[in-house]
Structure formats: C-alpha cells, structure tokens
Specification:
Elements: H1 12-23, E1 30-34, H2 46-54, E2 57-60, H3 63-72, E3 79-81, H4 87-99, E4 103-107, H5 120-128, E5 132-136, H6 141-149, E6 159-164, H7 169-179, E7 185-190, H8 195-206, E8 211-216, E9 224-229, H9 233-238, E10 248-252, H10 261-279, H11 284-295, H12 299-313
Parallel strand pairs: 1-4, 1-5, 2-3, 2-4, 6-7
Antiparallel strand pairs: 7-10, 8-9, 8-10
C-alpha cells in the first residue's frame, strides 16, 4: 500500500496528544526504561520520544546503533554505554546520576531492555537504591509473534518465554525437554544461522506432529510468519534461502491434548514407582538414566525426583 494518508502538516490530533505528554508527570531522580523499535522506526511511541528527549542522558546498549534511531527522531540527548560487559559499573554511574536529580533513560539496541537484553542489573541497582523506575512499554518481538500467530487465546492464555536457545545441539535438546514439560506455549529466540539445526532438535525432541510457528524479520519489510507441524519445518526453511537470514522468534505450540490433573498425578505416581524400585539396587544417577529410557522423560528431571525420593527414605 503506497497511499499517503498524512496531510501536508501534522494533524491537530497529534498536537493535542503531544500537549498531553507535555503536562504529564516527568519526575527527576528516575530511571526511564524505554522500549525501542525492533525494526520499524515508526514503532517508537510519542511518550518514548518525550522521555528520550527530556532525559539528561541515555544509557544505550550500543551507542552507534542507537544514534541512528535518535537522529531519525531528532533526539539530541547525550549517550553513555550500558551493555553486558560493563553493566555493573554502568549501573553504579546511573545511580549516582539519579541521586543528583537527573533523569536517565535506558534503552537496548531494539525492543525492551532487561527482556533478553541488558538492563536487568541496572534496574535492580536503581530499585535497591530506593530510586524510581518508570517503564515505557513498546515494541516486543515475543509479543508481536504471539499476536500474529493466535497461539494464545482466552481459553489457553498461558505461555512461557525461554529467552535464547543454547548454541550446542545436546544442550539445546536437554533445554527443550525441560521447557516443554510445561503445559503452555514456549517462546524462544533463535539466530538465523542456527535455525535449521534448532528445527532438527525440535523434531527430535517433540516429534513430527507438534505445531510450531516461525516469525522472522518482525516489523521489517520482509516480515514472515508461518505455522506448521514440525514434520514440515525443514522443507519450509529450505524452500527459500532468505529464511536463513533475520532473527527468529520460535513458538512451540502446547500439546494438542493437554493432560488432565488426574492423568498428571497418575503419571507422577507411576514414575515414582519406577524410581523407588530402581533405587533399591542402583545409584540415583543410574536409576534416573534407566527411568528416562523407560518413560521418555528428561533424565535431569528424573534425577531430581530420584534425589527427593532417596532423601525421604533416609
């Protein structure tokens, strides 16, 4: 759609909303945690623009990347760094600035600070110092993916965000088994150069019928969102070379038939019976290994349960 919907000047409604922003409370001695666009510059909110413009300084994950966003929006606020490698020292500096009465805005390269991005330690330090933290919501890759796939509904609203998947296949499969024990959709981020390997591990752990959604290049020109059973994932990825480009949000749909509470209790009792019998002649480690082969459950989970059963017996 190339239709130009804007008049020559800014509409009066924009001025009215901006005036409302002007008279809102913008406290000093406060950290403003500001979500920024994940690809589309137009996704910066008017309130975020005001906060970034009013701040005495902006703490950014990458000052060069953030400079492009700020220049596009005409924001001239000075920048300092707050990234994974200096976050603790940056937090101390930010607390000192706030104590003198400054407003500090915290941003990451894209999306929401402290959500699979640096910023959590800064927020913790500010709160520990008894200072105010003001969140300004905005663009989020995981929420955008959920909105576009319909995986969550009023009837099945649950989901968990698992962050980034491990980089090695063995660790990733173990990680997937642990997260998918939950009766909810599982959302995680994956790098484009690992998406094929990650899809292989999903198939190995969850089988061909489990539904999965892939969302790539969200809010950008080549945005793509697709849902399918895992049996079709590799063919879908291979059908277009561009699908190994762009950051991914992956959503593992919950099982089609969720177990009832009675079934979960019955399964739990059955597994405990296996472990109790095995522990009579085996170590905790060996009992967990054998039970994992017999039940299909994750060995790490069974090891923890076996430890608990052994502790009860002693």
């Amino acid at each position: 759609m190339n239709e130009n919907i804007l008049p020559d000047g800014l509409p009066a409604s924009w001025d009215r909303v901006s005036e409302r922003m002007e008279v809102q409370l913008w406290p000093t001695h406060a950290l403003y945690v500001v979500a920024t666009p994940i690809g589309n510059l137009g996704d910066l909110s008017l309130r975020a623009w005001h906060a970034l413009s009013r701040a005495d300084v902006i703490a950014a994950e990458d000052t060069r990347a953030s400079k492009s966003l700020l220049d596009a929006w005409g924001i001239a606020t000075p920048l300092i760094t707050a990234h994974r490698h200096n976050e603790r020292s940056a937090a101390a500096d930010i607390v000192e600035r706030l104590q003198t009465g400054q407003r500090v805005a915290l941003i990451s390269d894209a999306g929401s600070p402290a959500v699979s991005d640096p910023g959590g330690l800064v927020v913790q330090a500010v709160r520990h110092a008894g200072l105010r933290v003001v969140p300004l919501p905005g663009a989020s890759a995981l929420i955008s993916a959920l909105m576009a796939t319909g995986v969550t509904t009023d009837a099945t609203p649950g989901f968990v965000f698992a962050g980034f998947a491990p980089t090695k296949s063995t660790a990733r499969q173990r990680w997937l088994r642990q997260w998918t024990l939950l009766a909810a959709a599982v959302v995680f981020y994956e790098a484009p150069h690992r998406i094929v390997a990650s899809a292989n591990d999903l198939l190995a752990v969850l089988g061909p019928t489990r539904q999965v959604s892939f969302a790539r290049e969200l809010t950008k020109r080549f945005e793509e969102i697709a849902s399918m059973p895992l049996s079709e994932a590799q063919a879908w990825l291979a059908s277009d070379a561009h699908r190994e480009q762009g950051e991914y949000v992956v959503i593992i749909h919950p099982p089609a038939a969720m177990p009832t509470e009675e079934e979960l209790l019955e399964d739990s009792a059955s597994v405990d019976a296996w472990l109790e019998a095995l522990l009579e002649t085996m170590s905790v480690r060996d009992a967990a290994r054998v039970a994992a082969k017999a039940t299909g459950q994750a060995r790490d989970t069974l090891y923890a349960r076996a430890l608990g059963l052994k502790a009860l017996k002693s």
